[in-house]
Design a protein that fits this description.
archaeoglobus fulgidus dsm 4304 fold, 9 helices, eleven-stranded mixed beta sheet, 13 strands, single chain, alpha+beta
Length: about 300
Amino acid sequence: MEFEAVVELRPLRMGTAPRDVWAVDGGQAVVADAGCLQVVMARAARTRFRAGCCVVEDEGPLRTHLLGGSEGRAALAGLCLDLPPRTAIDLNLIRDRWEWDAVARCLDEADPEAMVLVDGDLVADWRIPPSLVGGLLKRAEAAGVLLAAVTKRSSLSRGGAPLLGQLELEAEAVLGPGARWWARLARIRGPEGSGADVMVVAARLDPAARFAFRIDLPADADPEMALGLIAAVSNDAGFPGYPYPLTVADRLAACPGWLRDEARLVLDEALERSGVPYAVRERAFADRHRLMERA
């Protein structure tokens, strides 16, 4: 990440919301953890808004994997990526891979001049080939679609303190407490020829917003125009300043406690049918922390 020498706060004008807006978010959960073995699940949800109305709520398929030992090879093969056979696989890689698959499907179905929003950033997990995201950015540009990512909580810092918090205070002092604003922060360069270069900005997208967010844009995008479009779908009364389509996608992708419990019950029933005694299952998967805290 190549940071700007000077971070300049600039006023932001809200644009007109695109007629076609897609949003993608991923969810994950650990169903059972034996230390050396884990049963995990993940999914990537999509939502679509046309002319301001939600017309698609797609939770996405719930994928369950056994990780650890030789079992991880099957999970790795299931990602359908050209990865070395010894690539380490974990829940983050699984979730990230299927989020980008959902983005690709959004681009397949999006109208010209649509917007596709992604939760997180425009940099894939380090194990995913950069050409995958670079290819999606090129497809979006060719179709006239804005592909952008919004991070709920940024780890960017300045002087050891959260950068966005500092910028929020500075913007309030310079531009006033009710201002929309943005600032260019950095550039991320992908490998040469990958097309995965990204512009990183910070923005406060609504006058009533409590928070500013890190937003990733294609490196060649017009940041003021792009942020104006995102601001136009970020004025929800419940959580102003964050794109509402992403809020819906987040809800769809979540793996709440009842879903984990249901998956664990299915796992227990399958192990029971296979002849694995309850005592063995309990010894392997018991949550020692929870048992000690309950005591």
